[in-house]
Amino acid sequence: MTDKTALILGANGGVGGETARALVAQGWQVRALTRTPRAPQQGFSWIDGDALDAAAVLNAARGVDAIVHAVNPPGYRNWNTLVLPMLDNSIAAAEAVGARLALPGTIYNYDVRTITVAKVDSPQQPVTRKGAIRVAMEQRIEAACRRGMRGLILRAGDYFGPRPGGSWLSQGMVTPGKPVRSILYPGDRGVGHSWAYLPDVGETFARLLERDATLPAFARFHFAGYYDPDGTLFPDAIRHAVGDPALPLRRMPWALLPLIAPFNATMRELIEMRPFWRHPLALDNRDLVATLGAEPHTPLDQAMATTLHALGCLPHENRRE
């Protein structure tokens, strides 16, 4: 157990919320900067503020040991104007108070047309606008580390978990609040894909931050999660959770999405992610395993059942805690 304190930006979201819970379980005190504060919980306090307000971020960061920057614009809107200013505020606060800044990273930094297994130091050649912003975020953290800040980046595949958020699972493959009658799968036949269970990602962040003193100033790791080698493992986990091995699989109608895109910002961003469903990409987690001894890993069937239960997608008799 510890007496450390962390500031979480994005605690209402998936990575931020799960990291906050994992840190509290490790004995940390957690502050959550949010525009929609809630009642205090054990080891967890909410602070009214906005990640775009530099003074609010700095004031919330006074005395903390770590800042977890897990905040994103909702619905993929205004990424090009909001993401980097928010990160700059977190970097400035981390530098001012001497905290380690932790960032959840993604696979979007990579060109999946030229790489199938990404190491932490593999070339980052993004093929999307969102990927280019992700690379710029990491570059700013690395530059701050050269000035004396401590940073931590944990890259992972597509997130899923008990809270809907912006995951492919809850935004397209199934519909929260409704029984699963079929699976709408975005990937091409036979193409591998990387998935990351949010509670495992949060636990990984907590364990890494517990080892702050032993990490390099600019620490980068890959979270392997679940690699579905041919696009059947993940749908089969849904079938198992639902209890229907014959649950039909439908393919994402990619050709129709451009018709909706002019009227829907989220749809425009999803179309840009198409290469990650046409080409496989796995993450090499050897550095993470060397540091932690093992990557936190919930069995996929258990993770899927917990997720679909929380999303209200399971018949009552199939729901599991």
Automatic annotation (TrEMBL):
Gene3D superfamilies: NAD(P)-binding Rossmann-like Domain. This is NAD(P)H-binding protein. It comes from the Bacteria. InterPro entries: NAD(P)-bd_dom (IPR016040), NAD(P)-bd_dom_sf (IPR036291). It holds the Pfam family NAD_binding_10. Signal peptide: none annotated. Residues 10-100 form the NAD(P)-binding domain.
